[in-house]
Amino acid sequence: MLNIGGLSEGFVLDHIEAGRSMEIYQYLNLDKFDCCVAIIKNARSSKMGKKDIIKIECSIDAIDLDALGFIDHNITVNIIKDDHIVEKKRLSLPKEIKNIARCHNPRCITSIEQELDYIFVLTDPKKEIYRCKYCEEKYRRKKR
Amino acid sequence: MRHLMSPLDFSVEELDQLLDLANDIEKHPEKYAHACDGKKLATLFYEPSTRTRLSFEAAMMNLGGNIFGFSSAASSSAAKGESVSDTIRMVSCYADICAMRHPKEGAPMVASAVSSIPVINAGDGGHQHPTQTLTDLLTIRSLKGRLDHLVIGLCGDLKFGRTVHSLVRALARYEHVTFVFISPEELKVPEYIKEDVLKAENIPYKEVERIEDVMPELDILYMTRVQRERFFNEADYVRLKDFYILNNKKMNLAKDDMIVMHPLPRVNEISVEVDKDPRAAYFRQVQYGVYVRMALILTLLEVKVC
Fold first, then answer.
1. Which of A66, A102, B137, B225 has the fewest Cβ atoms surrounding its Cβ within 10 A?
2. Which of A113, A134, A136 sits opposite B83 (nearest CB)?
């Protein structure tokens, strides 16, 4: 078993679908963080068979959990402070996300208007469908 | 302050009030001739449009108001790279209300977020064209006397036609409306309209390829243009194009009180011979477009006429 050192403050993102950790790394812009990040791929899981885990050593207000809920709301977020898990957070689908995903409709006003935020609104929680606030183009979340 | 971005911005009750006002304008135009004296409508048309811009301008002039604006992006400061947000901030200082047409979808919504005057979406790309839908609803209610208990046939390009999609969504809010979609396989109504609007609300609909097969059951036939460039090959276009041309022979199959509508421009999908048929309602529809835009301007400017 691979051993990764513990965190004094930060996050452990658990129950990530095996193989999706790098996608989440990119969504959360972790490459821009000047902190210690450990990515564990294909860890054994009694619940999922195998899973990915990301450990991030950073201030606990540095990560946008809404963004994480949009990417995969089945991820468990363990918040670590003073070497202890202070909260085990279950994510939910955020009602609105800002500047996490781009609208790919070339006819959308976001393709030309300066400094306009990309905003997607959850229009169908059952089917997990987000639509661009401006042009209503569908952005379907990737399912597990 | 309210804006109009989508035909569903108004509740069914608010829509009834708006259509009542439009019908009162139709009956008593003199009552409203000075309702907007001293008010100014800016028509911000970033792409060419004949009917919609003229209809807005006629509506404001009928109310005694003034109009100014531009009719293409090239003759506006957009050509110099000005953003929609900056343009509307500037226009807000000059006008009391504005109608905006823009090729980019969502542009009027961006404008409404920073505007200090009501913004009317006069068409944003293939997205929304709410005043066309209001026009269609007023035409139907005025000529059929109701917006419920109707069988409406929609014919032609049902895949890309935004007027069709908006009208389906708007009529789906009324009871006992049955939709009959008449189109070639290539131009069928999109799956999301069927799934999200019709099946989700258990609204009856059927899809057919030939007008003749359904003509006797329709209360309304809403025609749209079938464009050659939408077809994958010339053979399919040649095979199908005549199915979607309405002529007197097909009109003979229809009910005596059926009405034919069309958002216009008509090219060849309705034979000129049908124009003389009293059931041809497409030019009356244009007139209703002016009345409903007058009612909309009064409503958004909160002008009361006793």
1. A102
2. A113
